[in-house]
Write a structure and sequence with these properties.
This protein is an alpha+beta fold and 175 residues long. It contains 3 helices and 10 strands, in the order αββββαβββαβββ.
Length: 175
């Protein structure tokens, strides 16, 4: 009489064990790859902030600063006033709002699509070096008009996109 062979032989158990270990190794490898990708993205994270300095002093400035650890590439700059997109720079808008009777002189730096802002770089978007605090106050009031929006869209070298808006608290990720 022939002996019945067992379905679960030692060879089948060893084969299934090897397959299970291989699948577990693949899962761990995929998880590690995902962690490495996140680490790479975080190592070049740009973080732009808009900030005022010297409010109601003789040396008022509106600054754009990259406080992140990676470069920020500006992809779009929009200036809106009363929900209308303006075709002028922030400086031109401020100049148009200053009355002819006020003698306020300001200096500025342009921000535009394609401009790269390095980590720890600060750009003085608009500034006043005045003889009195009144000139700074005029510029500050114009820039803090609730109907004025400055929207800056930027990305990292890995093409992650963020947006910052004047008056908002923080940067918003777009993708």
């Amino acid at each position: 009489m022939a002996k019945k062979s067992k379905f679960w032989s030692g060879d089948k158990l060893i084969g299934l064990s090897a397959m299970f270990i291989s699948i577990c190794t693949l899962i761990v490898f995929l998880y590690q790859t995902n962690l490495i990708k996140k680490q790479q993205y975080a190592s070049v994270f740009p973080y732009l902030e808009l900030g005022h300095s010297g409010i109601f002093t003789k040396n008022y400035n509106l600054n754009l600063e990259n406080k992140g650890i990676g470069p920020a590439l500006i992809t779009d700059v929009q200036l809106r006033y009363k929900n209308t997109i303006l075709d002028k720079s922030l400086y031109e808008f401020v100049q148009s709002k200053i009355s002819k009777s006020d003698s306020v002189s300001a200096h500025y730096s342009s921000i535009y699509a394609g401009r790269l802002i390095s980590p720890n770089e600060s750009i003085e978007l608009i500034g006043v070096d005045a003889k009195d605090e009144e000139s700074s106050g005029i510029i500050y009031e114009i820039l803090n008009d609730s109907d004025l929006e400055l929207i800056i869209t930027y990305e990292s070298i890995y093409e992650e996109k963020w947006q910052i808006k004047k008056g908002s608290t923080g940067t918003f990720k777009l993708n």
